[in-house]
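In the previous chapter we treated chains in isolation. Here, by contrast, the input contains two separate entities that must be folded as one system, with a combined length of 309 residues.
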Amino acid sequence: MLTPALSRPLTRRASFRLVAGAALAAAGLTSVTACTPGEDTAETVDTLTTHLRQARQDARSAAALAASIPDRAAALSVVELERTAHADALATEIDRVAGGSTTTPATSTTTDGPTPTWDELVAALTDSARSAADSARNESGFRAGLLGSISAACTTSVKVVLA
Amino acid sequence: MNELGEEQQALVDALEAEYAAVFAYGIVGAFSNPARAELVATYAAAHRARRDATIDALTAASVTPPQPATAYATPFPVTDPVTAAQLAAQAEADTSVAWRSVIERSRSGPTREIGITALTEAALRLANWRTILGVVPSTVAFPGQP
């Protein structure tokens, strides 16, 4: 992190500002999640589950495609691993929101349909990025940050990893 | 000035990160490979635009934006194109963290939208710098996660 080398006219302790920001974010998360009304829980779980399914599907697609395009297997493996990490993080959040009262969709290993094409994977990731961003706008606290981060990761997959 | 709300404080923090990033890109431009001059100029301009937009957003919310520091200490000496690229990557990682925090701390959809856009742009630049640096993988699963 870059830190101010000279004290500034208005405020000091600026070198700790991002650290302080992170701490504030953590504090905000606690208060936000603590007051989530119960009737919203089902809706939240539905939303998160939709993103979890998309993440698992993208991971499966990337893995299947890697087998058929060995030249791009390394890049596709990155996508597979990141989408799997997204799914796992979403599953953890679903468990937390539901308080263990719902069964998180299992890590399905079923292969559904034919291996997607490269363009289909790119389209799916683009859609995942958009839908995660849409949900992030309507969530708050940690969940908003998580979905926003997942959206950014999907866009980066499309524009850098698979570019 | 009244005590800042959570969302306003998040934007102030993001502005501080953008100030530091703009400063960093000045150093990056001085030491980076001349072949990357256009890339550096484009990325520096993006940070200036984000800085200015954030100042405007704070001003519109009747918050006096903080001033930038006169100078910033880099976390490591920058002496050549490689360390310059590393500093650029650091600036992108720092701004990613700040903008993800904006998403988390915002109280309104439009501000979260700004945070998502800014986080995504920083994540893309970070991935490009990591590609240039030969870091594998070039991306991270959770951009902006400290």
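The helical segments of chain A are 17-34, 41-68, 73-98, 118-138, 141-161. The CA atoms of residues 54 and 109 of chain A lie 14 Å apart. Compare these points with the single-chain example from earlier in the chapter.
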